[in-house]
Design goal:
Elements lengths: L1 E5 L6 H7 L2 E3 L2 E4 L2 E4 L6 H10 L5 E3 L3 H10 L4 E5 L7 H15 L5 E5 L5 H15 L4 H14 L2 E4 L4 H5 L5 H9 L2 E7 L5 E8 L1 H16 L7 E7 L3 H14 L3 E8 L2 H7 L4 E4 L1
Length: 280
Amino acid sequence: MNILVDSCCDLSPELLERTGATIAPLTLTVGGKDYIDDGSVDIPAFIEAMKATKDAARSACPSPDYYERLINGADGDCFIVTLSSNLSGSYNAAALGVNLAQENNPDRRIHIFDSESASAGETYLALMTRDLIDAGCAFEEIVEKVEDKIRTMNTIFVLDSLDNLVKNGRVSKAVAAVASILSIRLVMSDDGHGRIKQLGKARGIKAALSQMVDVCRKQTEGSEPGSRRLVLSYCNCLERAQQVRDMIRDKCPAIGEIVMTPTSGLSSLYAYDGGVVIAY
């Protein structure tokens, strides 16, 4: 069984090897320059390029033909993990790619997971899928278990800057201006259906990250100690991510394994410099 993911799935080289996933890269455009998000993007330089332009950074999802080629190049059944269909056209492109691939092989089993998330959320699902494959689970059982997880998974993020969300029209200039003046940082999450909602706000990045950890603690209460996995993605801020990891270990007894990974190009486009994303 094969795993395909779009490039909003944050996979370090170690996690790429661990999952055995194949990446369908999005194309990112910043300041008139295109970047293929295939793992080769220099993230610090990419962030500086975003800071240097007043224009919004853009992304284009893989084409259906590209997904078809990846599916046809894989051997056996396929699972595809995409970022939320409410945030990108990647899911729809993958669905069209599946239709194309099955024209010549209609009996081949392929399932697309709409993560209803992004970044660390996709990484979580890719890891879970690999674990279930390695455990010898049947195709239908994997689909059921991962879809169940999608319905209950939580994704929370804190950004150190709203500049890029303003440029992309996801946050108003007025909100960003007030946040900047008052040093306010927003704590945000998915709304359960792959859209973004605000959970809270705090004065300063440290307070916002502490609030994020408190939300994680409350949402995992009742689970057995050490029974939950958490994925932590970070954008150009390893030391900050390590501090968040240590807070989670201290305050969230239900969390056992913590998987840390730097953000991909696409995740960096939205998380921006200093952003932290957790999914569990």
